[in-house]
């Protein structure tokens, strides 16, 4: 049995990198360099994440959760929501050609 989501979201979910850039970096007075050092990753990794060129991996979710005191699921769920929304928009035409099956 399928329960359809009746709400079509028009605005994309916030990318985790945008959350870090807009909320966490200012709140904790961080720079790209200080965040990279605190997480034990390169500045390039953080820069790509902040520019939405990189996704949150399970390892990065663990690093961020330890640093900011929240759960790794917070970060992974945010990434998951963003990825699904992007994929749905990208493959909308193909998805419209797939029709649900009915059980016999």
What is shown here, in short?
This protein has helices at residues 16-27, 32-39, 43-50, 58-68, 72-90, 92-96. It is mostly helical. The chain has one domain (16-96): 434 Repressor (Amino-terminal Domain) (Orthogonal Bundle), CATH 1.10.260.40.
List keywords for this structure.
single chain, mainly alpha, 434 Repressor (Amino-terminal Domain), 61% helix
How would you state the average pLDDT, rounded? 93
Query: How many separate structural domains?
Result: 1
Largest sheet: none
How large a portion of the residues is in β-strands, by DSSP E? under 5%
- Assign the CATH class: Mainly Alpha
The DSSP helix count reads 6
Question: Which helices and strands appear, and what pairs or packs with what?
Answer:
Elements: H1 16-27, H2 32-39, H3 43-50, H4 58-68, H5 72-90, H6 92-96
Walkthrough of the structure:
With 104 residues, the chain is an all-alpha fold. It has one domain: 434 Repressor (Amino-terminal Domain), CATH 1.10.260.40. 61% of the residues lie in helices and 0% in strands. The chain contains six helices and no strands. It has helices at 16-27, 32-39, 43-50, 58-68, 72-90, 92-96. Helix 1 crosses helix 3 (43-50) and helix 4 (58-68) packs across helix 5 (72-90).
């Amino acid at each position: 049995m399928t329960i359809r989501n009746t709400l079509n979201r028009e605005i994309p979910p916030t990318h985790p990198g945008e959350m870090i850039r807009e909320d966490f970096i200012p709140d904790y007075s961080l720079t790209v360099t200080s965040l990279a050092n605190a997480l034990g990753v390169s500045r390039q990794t953080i820069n790509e994440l902040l520019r939405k060129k990189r996704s949150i991996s399970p390892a990065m979710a663990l690093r961020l959760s330890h640093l900011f005191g929240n759960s790794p699921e917070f970060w992974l769920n945010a990434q998951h929501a963003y990825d699904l929304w992007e994929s749905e928009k990208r493959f909308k035409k193909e998805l419209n050609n797939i029709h649900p099956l009915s059980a016999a």
